[in-house]
Amino acid sequence: MTGPAAHRIAADGVELAAYQWGPSTAPPVVLVHGYPDTSAVWRPVAERLADRFHVTAFDVRGAGASHRPRGLRAYRMSRLEADLEAVLDAVSPDRPVHLVGHDWGSIHSWESVTGTRLAGRIASFTSISGPCLDHVGHLIRARLRPRHPDLPKMLRQAARSWYIAYFHFPLLPALTWRALGHRWRTFLTGSQGMPGHTRYPAPTLARDAVSGTALYRANMLPRLLRPRDRPTTVPVQLIIPTRDFCVTPVLSYGVEHWTGQLQRRPIDAGHWVQLSHPEEIASRIAEFAHRIEDGSLHSPDHTAHPI
Question: Are 252 and 277 in contact (CB under 8 A)?
């Protein structure tokens, strides 16, 4: 298979590197990566979607071949949403896209899915291992309390989120990534199930990881401590890796209160499921998008505790 077509997209004070697969007349799919990844994390999935969709993946600001602005303000949700808007304007100005996000790519995509800025521009949203921070803030208020039946699960999730606090320390994350970044591929092929032939991670990993800590410092505490009500009418598919060591299934609880059409799809996999199970992830994205395109998605799945 030939490689993707590369483009530069002018966004909110930065240029973003974008890559496209598939015919331009096919339904558009936009893939948004998380931390500490680049758009290359989506390549195994994009290649499997390219015969049915016009697929775009882009390096978010601070990652890969995109610009790396300085300062926390440059990484706030509003700037990330502006970047996504620029991508949609460039790749699909007249047709709503099927948006897919993983990790931080899903977290900041929720901002657009639940907001008004891109109303009518998103046909569906597939979220993988990246909850809406406002939804999580409400979840914490409701369930992180004595005698609540979900308290043990919430505490386990809190313990697994230790790295978020670590990323708020000055210098330490940068020193850690520069010292240990060369072991990341071994980690992905070992505990995360990435096939050994997969060409990943990107050579910019250490710089991407250091820049990307700004996402946590600019956005986590304000949204978790002062959550807003963030409903959406966009059809949502949650793909929930049940062996995810970062984002456990409890963070998907309560999402049904904020969505009109919700499909939950557990998968026996770890956090980087698009690398370990690209065929299955591509199939689930395609199935959900096709059901939106042909109008066959009607009944929501509002199971509150599916996992």
Answer: no
DSSP annotation of 10 reads E
- The tokens for 127 are 């979220």
Q: Give the residue extent of every domain in the chain.
A: 5-293
Q: Which residues contact 197 (CB under 8 A, 6 or more apart)?
A: none
Upstream peptide bond of 28 is cis (omega within 30 degrees of 0): no
Q: Which helix (H) or strand (E) holds 172?
A: helix 172-180
CA-nearest of 171, 155, 131 to 256 is: 131
CATH superfamily of 5-293: Alpha/Beta hydrolase fold, catalytic domain (3.40.50.1820)
Kindly give the parts of the chain with pLDDT less than 70: 1, 298-307
Q: What is the pLDDT of residues 248-303, one digit of tens each?
A: 999 999 999 999 999 999 999 999 999 999 999 999 999 999 999 998 886 555 55
Q: What are phi and psi of 29, to 5 degrees?
A: -125, 130
Taking alpha carbons only, the member of 69, 63, 95, 92 closest to residue 12 is 69
The CA distance from 130 to 108, in Å, is 8
3-state helix, strand, coil in the chain (%, to 5): 45, 15, 40
Point out which residues pair with 126 in neighbouring strands.
Answer: 100, 237
Strand intervals (E) in 39-87: 54-58
pLDDT tens column, 176-199:
999 989 999 999 999 999 999 999
